[in-house]
Amino acid sequence: MLEWVVEDDIARIRFHHPPANVIDTALMVRFQELIRQLQADQDRIGFVVLESALPGKFSAGVSVPEHAPDRAPEMIRTFHETLWQWVHVPQVTVAAVDGYALGGAAEVLLLTDFVIASDRSQLGFPEIRLAFFPPVALAFLPDWVGYHRAASMILRGVSVPAEAWHRWGLVERVVPAEGLSQAVADLIEELRHLSRAALRLTRRLLKRRSIEAGWAHVRALEQAFIEDLLRLADVAEGVQAFQEKRPPRWTHR
Question: Which residues sit opposite 96 in a β-bridge?
Fold first, then answer.
């Protein structure tokens, strides 16, 4: 589900949840366990790499069945708690993305220090196609990439190439798939020449300004997700249509 490998001062967390690395509640709980391990081992581990064990598949995002109205409140609260903990790991975080990173997986990337992606990667927020919205993307993307670009990404629900995310400042580098591991290694080697203590302090202050200050908005959107969105008849239809592999039949209410 999530593999954990420590090599020297690098912890690698690998999605290994075939066929599409779907993020379900069990995976979130395991992720939180690994984050606690990172907290405990911060003197030994300086860098965390988030990657996939499945070539060409980073993650299809959060489990659609767990978006069903009776399960969604627990799912969204657990997911946001996991993201909050991910923001606060003491190490520099790097994501190595090869293939698609969708929905909640793309939100994880928004909260990762460095994202390096292969040139065959596609990233996006398809939630609206099932009558949902992505709270973390809603909270931060308009300020980070501008309202109209955020609106296009979220309201159309389309995936875009990693190169576009690079132009918008959301991805550090785009490289051929065969060069992804080396690009991650090069970045970490560059950072190794810096004071780890200074890096920890500086990124904590950076996240305080860029993410923590806006997290109350994430919580408000979480509440809107539970109290407003889940009341829509179209939400249940979106989940059912996905499971039945058919186009949704919207009632628009």
Answer: 116
In the structure, how many helices (H) and strands (E) does the chain have?
10, 10
Please write the tens of the pLDDT for every residue from 182-213: 999 999 999 999 999 999 999 999 999 999 99
Give me 65's structure tokens. 């069945």
Q: Which two tokens stand for residue 117?
A: 């992606």
Strand partners, 51: 14
Query: Which of 151, 2, 135, 141 has its CA nearest to residue 67?
Result: 135
Q: Please indicate, yes or no, if residue 19 is contained in any of the structural domains.
A: yes
Residue range 112-155, pLDDT digits in tens: 999 999 999 999 999 999 999 999 999 999 999 999 999 999 99
Number of domains within the chain: 1
Average pLDDT over all residues of the chain:
97
The answer to whether 87 and 32 have CB atoms below 8 angstroms apart is no
Domain of residue 64, CATH code: 3.90.226.10
User: What is the C-alpha separation between 179 and 49, in angstroms, rounded?
Assistant: 15
Query: Per residue in 140-162, is it b (16+ CB within 10 Å) or e — as a string?
Result: bbeeebeeeebeebbeebebbbb
Beta strand segments in 55-140, E: 57-59, 92-97, 100-102, 114-118, 122-124
Mean pLDDT over 33-38 rounds to 98
**Closest-CA residue to 66 (of 225, 248, 228, 224):** 225
